[in-house]
């Protein structure tokens, strides 16, 4: 299965010296802009989608939670399929970059559809949610599997890919900061008291920005590693992946991390509204207290991404992953120990956890490309698209489960939309914000003990691959 283009530049391989040269500032910013584009949607969804479905549009919590889980069956097929297709794509722009051009507008349009909020009866709303949510996840697959795989071919040098990863998550963090600081005020301003209208207008703003940023990524990046024509079978590719133990561990770890994160942040609007009794009055500039907590967390995430390269001077990726996951878990347990009326300690502990996540997510995607290189080193064939498709499935599956867990908890503890909540319901909201997410981060820390691609191993892999590519 191959997409071809009649252009001699597709066959051109850069000279070794130029291919290994440091990436320019513009290209690193350009690459990072792709994840900022993604965060304008996924950050928005992770924070507000459960709240929108349950407390704004009026779908039952358990119905939404079930929908989040059931639709992941599609992703289990679409994510690796997209990786396989991208690995076999061949155009004058490369293997992975073209999908940024082709997928930007469809992805933006499907995100707007998700918040269209038609006035259907309960069953109709749930059906619409199933269809629109499934479509936006397919759109995410179409553009983000190739985007993540692009990191593996943007440079043959691991250190340069790590720098690109840092820019990626600095830009992603800036995207989530913008979402955290402006989304709720934007909803309030556009809606003028009508949250349904407000969400519809706000997502249109972010849809437009998403298209612009993905196109910027397309025009500012280059695929320097041009693997030979992909002539292995799908079965052979899957076998190499299955035998890559570190990839399996990283994929499982990623799912636990994202479940824990999304369970935490998608519960925030409920916890601040009902347990902390925070209103909509402005606390700082245009931000109310809930917006301030969310924004503070995302500023901390940006700091976590920024300090990751410095921390790697003192610990390897595996050690840093273990420590960061333990720190996030500890911050959640610590929040449980203080009364919800203590605003500043609650906000600071929340920020500590998201700071740890900034380190974690920067490491995760760098480690996925390490797994891709290791797979090429073992098999002789580059399958970066298929390898990093696990990261997309982890993000989407983790996001779905992370949103579903609070949904089930809300339903079990008797949550009722826009009502004075019972002590039982408040207890359930407290559990889903302060206790449950911590166990997922503890599990991720334990899993990472068994990850085996350490620094000396990757140094050898990189040196051998550079020699092979130079000879080719």
Automatic annotation (TrEMBL):
InterPro entries: MFS_2, MFS_trans_sf, Na/Gal_symport. NCBIfam families: gph. The lineage of its organism: Bacteria, Pseudomonadati, Pseudomonadota, Alphaproteobacteria, Rhodobacterales. This is MFS transporter. The chain crosses the membrane at residues 36-54, 60-78, 99-115, 127-155, 167-187, 199-219, 247-265, 285-308, 320-338, 350-372, 393-415, 435-453. It comes from Paracoccus fistulariae. Belongs to the sodium:galactoside symporter (TC 2.A.2) family. Keywords: Membrane, Transmembrane, Transmembrane helix. The keyword Transmembrane applies.
